[in-house]
Amino acid sequence: MSQLNEKREYLRAEINVFVNEDVKTGVQLTRAVDISEGGVRYIKPSGEFRRETNEVYLEFSLPDDDHTVKALGKVVGDELNFHSHATSVVFTALSVDNADRIRRYVIRRKRAELFESIRKEHLGENTLSN
């Protein structure tokens, strides 16, 4: 999706952490793939899909952070295929402290991606001129 078509309010970053998804039918261990202070997207193996409500309670930790992020969320998307089940959640209750920690994580990731992109571009220009 191009940035011109992007409708998200918050900057998102890739992430690879485990998330406990707690719904009325039980707790499932999932893996987050991207995050913003407004929500998270996570995947789990495909299998029986059953959710009685769109509300979920999530717990996870950010990389290099000892604090557990606890949030309530609303499921806004499910993508099912043969191998996996991806879920997109918008946070409905997230403490200011946790939102700030997520924001700082996203900024660090985006800064690292930018520097890596610049480094690759610089190296590419140097190798062409030799």
Explained architecture:
- The protein is of the alpha+beta class and 130 residues long.
- The chain has a single domain (3-129), classed as Thrombin, subunit H, CATH 2.40.10.220.
- Helices cover 26% and strands 46% of the residues.
- It contains one helix and six strands; from the N terminus they run ββββββα.
- It has one helix at 96-129, and strands spanning 13-23, 26-36, 39-45, 55-61, 68-80, 84-94.
- Strands 1-2-3-6-5-4 form a six-stranded antiparallel barrel.
- A hairpin with a 2-residue loop joins strand 1 and strand 2.
- It is globular.
- The N and C termini lie far apart (36 Å).
Task: Give the gist of this structure.
The chain is an alpha+beta fold and 130 residues long. It has one helix at residues 96-129, and strands at residues 13-23, 26-36, 39-45, 55-61, 68-80, 84-94. The N and C termini lie far apart (36 Å).
Give a quick account of the main beta sheet: strands, pairing sense, barrel closure. 6 strands, antiparallel, barrel
Task: Examine the coordinates and then state which fold CATH places here, giving the name of the CATH topology.
Answer: Thrombin, subunit H
**Do you know the CATH architecture?**
Beta Barrel
Q: Please count the beta strands (DSSP E, at least 2 residues each).
A: 6
Outline:
globular
What's the tally of helices? 1
Q: Helix amount, in percent? A: 25-40%
Q: Percent of residues in beta strands? A: over 45%
Average pLDDT over all residues: 86
Could you say which structural class the secondary elements and strand pairing correspond to? alpha+beta
Count of spatially separate domains: 1
Order the strands across the largest sheet as they lie in space: 1-2-3-6-5-4
Low-confidence stretches: none
